Amino acid sequence: MKVSVSILSSSIKPQEIVKKLDNTKADFIHVDIMDGKFVENKTWTFSEIKKITDYSNLPLDVHLMVKDPKKYVEDYALLNTVYLTFHYEAVEDINDMIEYIKNYGLKVGIAINPNTDVSVLFPYLKYIDLIIVMSVFPGASGQPFIETTPERINMLKEEIFKQNVKTIISVDGGINNETGLLCKDAGVDMLVSASYIHRDIQNNINILKEL
Ligand code: DX5
Ligand code: ZN
After folding, report:
1. 42 Cα to the center of ligand 1, angstroms
2. Checking DSSP bridges between strand 190-193 and strand 2-6, what pairing results, if any?
3. pLDDT score at 197
4. Is residue 88 within 8 Å of 48, Cβ to Cβ?
5. pLDDT at 13 (0 to 100)
6. Lowest mean pLDDT among 12-26, 76-90, 171-185
7. How far is CA 14 from CA 9, 39, 80, 123, 194, in A?
8. What is 2-209's CATH topology?
């Protein structure tokens, strides 16, 4: 199982966390960017993220919870970014946004809110690398896992199989050993976690990795 560690809302300084992550089995640093418009909260600026992530060699999985994702692509292409993910709900011209990100040499992800029908993504599966299925409403860490998530993951997984494409599925929000297992059984490829992992970084990453 791939594990992407969100650095959102930990009591430890983010640069201390990312330093530690290099000595764990974490696959990615999950960078949550909020603009105070698409969601109420605001997180770091690009220069803050650059300073924080300079402390680690891990690749980045950047989750843009922003109204105008195009504005962020050029900056994040300068970092160790592998996946750049925008929200389906934020963008009008999805194909144009996919192309725009690809032109910077990045892998493209689309995140989908808990109340958006997953079938809206079916026409784009062959053009994207990652889907982030939101298992909470975006905006904050520490929220409870929404129980309809595994069936949403399963619907996407079946369609990916049907279309014979390589898109991977990630899940974000309220993930721990139990909810992570439910998502694994539904076909998820990657787990994103903040609060559960920060309780005991080394140990809980190992638990999620081995699910
Ligand atoms: C929520 C963010 C998540 C969040 C996950 O809007 O996108 O990445 O940090 O936090 P936990 O694992 O605590 O739900
Ligand atoms: Zn996230």
Report:
1. 13
2. parallel
3. 96
4. no
5. 87
6. 12-26
7. 9, 21, 17, 37, 12
8. TIM Barrel (3.20.20)
CA–CA gap between residue 166 and residue 126 (Å, rounded): 8
**Position 43: which residue type?**
T
| Active site (annotated) includes residue 129 | no
121, 110 contact by CB (below 8 A): yes
Query: For residues 105 and 132, what is the distance between their CA atoms, to the nearest angstrom?
Result: 20
Amino acid making up residue 44? W
d(CA 195, CA 184): 19
Q: What are phi and psi of 105, to 5 degrees?
A: 80, 20
**Residue of 61, 129, 172, 189 with catalytic role:** 172
Reading the block at residue 22, the tokens are 């290099």
pLDDT per residue over 138-191, tens digit each? 999 999 999 999 999 999 999 999 999 999 999 999 999 999 999 999 999 999
Separation between Cα atoms, residue 116 and residue 200, nearest integer Å: 33
Asked whether the predicted pLDDT for residue 10 surpasses 80, the reply is: no
Q: Is 75 a catalytic residue?
A: no
Give the residue carrying structure tokens 């402390």.
55
- What's the pLDDT score for residue 9? 65
Residues in the ligand 1 pocket, defined by CB under 6 Å: 6, 8, 30, 32, 63, 136, 138-143, 172-175, 192-196
- If you take atom 9 of ligand 1, which residue's CA is the nearest one? 141
Chain-wide mean pLDDT for the chain?
97
Amino acid at 24: T
State the average pLDDT over residues 99-117.
98
In this structure, what DSSP letter does residue 113 have? -
